[in-house]
Amino acid sequence: MRDLGAWARVQAERLREGLAPDAAGHPAYVLAQAAKLAEEVGELQAEVLGQAGYQRRSKGVDFTAETMSDELADVVICVAMLAGSYGVDLGAAVAAKIEKLEARWSGG
Ligand SMILES: [Mg+2]
Asked: Which residues form the NTP pyrophosphohydrolase MazG-like domain (predicted)?
C-alpha cells in the first residue's frame, strides 16, 4: 500500500502551489482543507443515501460499489491531508486510537 501520509503531504503542497499567497498560508489553507473535508463527507452522505435508495432516480446518478469506494477514499485522503498540515502521523494516531478502543472493550 502506498504511504498515504507521505503522498498526502506531497498532494497538499501541489494544491497549495496553485493558490494565491493569502490563501496558501496557515490558517487559511487548513481552513480550506477542513471545508474540503466537509464537502467530501457531504458527497459520501449523498452516496450512502443513493445506495440506500433515498436519492431521486431523476438525478441520473449511478450508485455502485465503485462510486462508494471513490467517495470513501476522498474522505480518507482529505483527512490525511489535514493530518499532514498539523504534523500528525495518521497511521500512528489511528493505531493509538485502536489500542484505546480495544482496551475499553477488554476492560482495560
Ligand atoms: Mg468525493
From this structure: 34-104
